[in-house]
Automatic annotation (TrEMBL), chains A, D:
UniProt xrefs under Pfam families: CoA_trans
Molecular function GO terms recorded: CoA-transferase activity
Key words, A-Z: Transferase
Record InterPro entries: CoA_trans_fam_I (IPR004165), NagB/RpiA_transferase-like (IPR037171)
Protein name in the entry: Glutaconate CoA-transferase subunit B
Organism field: Aerolutibacter ruishenii
Automatic annotation (TrEMBL), chains B, C:
GO molecular function, one term: CoA-transferase activity
Tagged with keyword Disulfide bond: no
Organism classification: Bacteria, Pseudomonadati, Pseudomonadota, Gammaproteobacteria, Lysobacterales
UniProt KW Transferase keyword: yes
Keywords: Transferase
Protein name as annotated: Glutaconate CoA-transferase subunit A
Length: 260, 288, 288, 260
């Protein structure tokens, strides 16, 4: 029996990837949890930017929406949303874009638009939001999402935001300014793009998870790195910070957690 | 020049069937009261524009007021799907909804272009995305200096923009603060502008460089305290997160939705009565 | 990340011969102290950019620091001509100055494009003007939606931008207010950013939505009280209109100008000493 | 003997053309004097916008520069200069652009760039500033300048900002949004463009000025309207307001008046 949940492992592992002092464009939901956990643990100087306008937000509870008052009140300043996308993201000021998605493929391309055909959708998802340009312009991208066959698919129904396109140097050839996804953190493992093919490759497996579980939860024949490590389990400090954050959040918002 | 009037008058005189309408608000300051009044007055065939259509657009769409939607993210923030939007897109209920889908960066730039009197905006965007395949309004041009390929999008120029703000003075000058979203751009991009406000004050105590909309760019200012409910107005009230959760259940079912709109919007005289009726029904629901 | 250091260090380490440099300020908050330090350190071959080159650019040009100038209005505000700029353009003294001339609307858009990471800006401008005949950087494109012809201009992307602001906190976050000009855009368009400030405070008491430059976009913050003199810093000091009038006489004559620069700038250690020397010489001038 | 100067007549006549409530983009110098005189007399609701950023400035003394603190302190709000040109001028929010110039031609085209050839100038002027786009985008344009042969020329050395281009419907054909210059107010007279040819035509002569003086002060064969009126001399109210304004200004700034 582990003393933490797989979701907790995921949030902690994702948080660890945010360097202290990094300027981070934060998506709502799991990315926001991870980015704030990082800020409350090893990365107190991380600068969190939300697309609604807050720059340098330091929320004490997780925002339920991308425009919670808490974000504005704790920020260094709040600028118009148009400025966020123009001067700060497109202007090349973002070190890390922190994203989630409904679907991902082996090259870390993302779908948040539609399941099924676009014109006759099986499920209509919320849509692009800020993701296409975060994926393009942030210096690098971190992705956090739960792993499963419906999410980690062989073929995306729709490419909303690019990862490494069809792999190799496709991204650079397309003239995209940022490096693209550098890691995908799930509830089972951590993947990184292969340095040459840019195909996602498992580099670290969370404690207690088997290779078979990862294979089973992936819609393509997932590759494992030559050296696969075991993810360091959450430390007490990390776990305490995460649980305190989620408890404060639950008290502030009622039963719900920060969502999409 | 800003006229201080009731929201009923403003919507009646300034929003016409078939208009392109933007009701903006980025989680903060969403003009819910105005959206309800549009439903109450039975406006039809509206071309809706909004970066983040949420509950109020779900209500407009489910009520049959909308012909089309230009947007970049349609969800119930913090909860999940917009069921009325999905039902319209997936099943064509209550009728077909033409959607024109962009990204946030695109929409933000499109409002800036609209406010700037330009027909289009240029952005670094969409590379590798499937969105341009399904939206022929997203196009690409070459930079006349470097030859780089950049995306373009048509400016948003609404017939009417509606926003909610914290304060107006008695002359009709408006002040807003906190999360500003794209409201200033949406306001200045529009031919007509309706602003609902929390409070009318003798004098705006604005900081230097505050976000002010002068009275002469505003068509009507309407005093509607709490008019952003269940969204919030910083300094005045808080977001009612329970409403967003409750909406998920109400909006999943066509009949439940229709009954809710009838009772809470169509059968109420104004937003104040809606708030009373909603308070009663939600107390009953909690007691049950 | 902003380093708090002396202006001498900042100019020495961050401005190199041959750099493209923008020192912005729209009458308000003009970074005169930084301009003097550039002259004092004998920087050469600078490509200067500024909407409204005024006295500090006149001094830089007359001192031979500038290779070229991109601008939209070059005058002594409220007084008349910039004689050093005119002498450089009309007579090539102290050497030829390449000028690239735009309009204010163009330059403002060019800074916005620079801050936005775009290679060019689009504007409704120049129709019927002779400016595009003498500046092949001004070009025209067709709107991909309406076919309208619109003007374009290359983005301004300075190697270094220098601005003066009211306050910084001890971490190096900067706050400015009042007439903001294009300073925020110039700051965010640059590869390196130097900010001189009136005051260092423990905590910026900024209004919501105030104009703040976070420390991580700034290369160096230098505490230079009165560093905008003879321009002004709202809330701190007033414009010295007499200096602008006096400059007309000083700058008309090459020898008088050169002697003035030698005595007031090259022979002084820093801006504080310049202020003392200038106060003495202007008292003598008034007494004479 | 008149009890007012020709400059005073000019400022008063120019001020009268600004309608109450008009949103006016104000150039520094003579236009600023006229616009503020209008605001202090018949047009208290005129909204003065200066290119440096103030919207709704209500200065009690004339600004010496386009960015005087007085403008910011008395304004309804102050926005960035980039916003002034983008959202307010190009956005079509300006009713009246109030301009001066060094040279003007018969179709009210303006030169503020250079006297002599551009590459070997006889006199280098300050340049375009905001004028080209004010001339293009303001709904209408008022021009105020002293009349003389060196200023009212047969052929401009340089077209900085368009008036009616080469006359007739040239402006509309060029796709310019605004109506262009509707009046030129000088120290001698008032001219308006002919409704068809758009050539400047004298419609009102200031008291005590002769047609010969106007002909003599114009570098092309100036036309007079079929009905030429006499400009109403400054009223006591107008003159008192103007003199009080200039006296307050002189006291505040020293000897100088608001310049270019």
């Amino acid at each position: 029996m582990s003393s933490y949940t797989t979701n907790e492992m995921m949030s902690v592992a994702a948080a660890r990837r945010l360097p202290d002092g990094a300027v981070c464009f934060v998506g709502i939901g799991l990315p926001s949890t991870a980015a704030n956990l990082a800020r409350l643990t090893h990365a107190p100087e991380a600068v969190l930017i939300y697309e609604s306008g807050p720059i340098g937000a330091k929320p004490t509870v997780l925002p339920l929406s991308i425009g919670d008052g808490e974000l504005a009140e704790t920020a260094d300043t709040v600028v118009p949303t148009s400025e966020i996308f123009r001067y700060w993201l497109q202007g090349g000021r973002i070190d890390v874009g922190f994203l989630g998605a409904a679907q991902i493929d082996r090259h870390a391309n993302l779908n948040t638009t539609v399941i099924g055909p676009y014109d006759a959708p099986k499920t209509r998802l919320p849509g692009a939001g800020g993701a296409p340009e975060i994926a393009g312009s942030a210096k690098e991208v971190l992705i956090v999402m739960r792993q499963g066959k419906r999410a980690f698919v062989n073929q995306l129904d729709f490419v909303t935001s690019v990862g490494h396109m069809d792999g190799g140097d496709a991204r650079a050839r397309a003239g995209l300014p940022g490096k693209g996804p550098v890691a995908v953190i799930t509830d089972l493992c951590i993947m990184e793009p292969d340095p040459v093919s840019r195909e996602l490759t498992v580099v670290s497996i969370h404690p207690g998870v088997t290779r078979e579980q990862i294979v089973e939860a992936t819609g393509w024949p997932i590759r494992f790195a030559a050296q696969v490590g075991e993810t360091v389990p959450p430390t007490t400090t990390e776990l305490d910070a995460l649980r305190a954050l989620e408890e404060r959040t639950a008290q502030a918002h009622g039963k719900t957690k920060g969502g999409e | 020049m800003a006229e201080l009037c009731s929201l009923r008058e403003a919507v009646s005189q300034l929003i016409h069937d078939g208009d392109t309408v933007a009701m903006e608000g980025f989680t903060h300051l969403i003009p819910h009261a105005a959206g309800h009044e549009v439903i109450r007055q039975g406006k039809r065939d509206l071309s809706l524009v909004r970066m983040t259509p949420d509950l109020v657009y779900d209500q407009l769409i489910g009520s049959g007021a909308a012909k089309s939607l230009r947007f970049s993210w349609g969800g119930n923030p913090g909860v999940g799907s917009l069921h009325r939007l999905r039902d319209a897109v997936e099943k064509g209920w209550p009728h077909k909804l033409d959607i024109r889908e962009h990204s946030h960066a695109d929409m933000a730039n499109a409002y800036v272009a609209g406010a700037s009197g330009l027909p289009f905006a240029v952005l670094r965007g969409y590379t590798g995305s499937d969105l341009p395949k399904h939206n022929d309004h997203i196009r690409f041009i070459q930079c006349p200096y470097t030859g780089e390929t950049l995306a373009t999008t048509p400016a948003v120029r609404p017939d009417v923009t509606v926003i909610h703000a914290q304060q107006a003075d008695r002359q009709g000058n408006v002040l807003l603060w906190g999360i500003l979203g794209v409201q200033k751009e949406a306001a200045l991009a529009a031919k007509r502008l309706i602003v609902t406000v929390e409070e009318i004050v003798d004098k705006l105590e604005a900081a230097p460089n505050a976000c002010i909309l002068p009275k002469w760019v505003i068509s009507a200012v309407c005093h509607v305290p709490g008019g952003a409910f269940p969204s919030y107005a910083q300094g005045y009230n808080e977001r009612d997160n329970r409403f967003y959760l409750a909406w998920d259940a109400i909006s999943r079912d066509r009949e439940a939705f229709t009954a809710w709109i009838q009772r809470h919007v169509r059968d109420t005289a104004d937003f104040a009565e809606f708030r009373r009726v909603y308070a009663e029904s939600s107390q009953l629901a909690e007691a049950a």
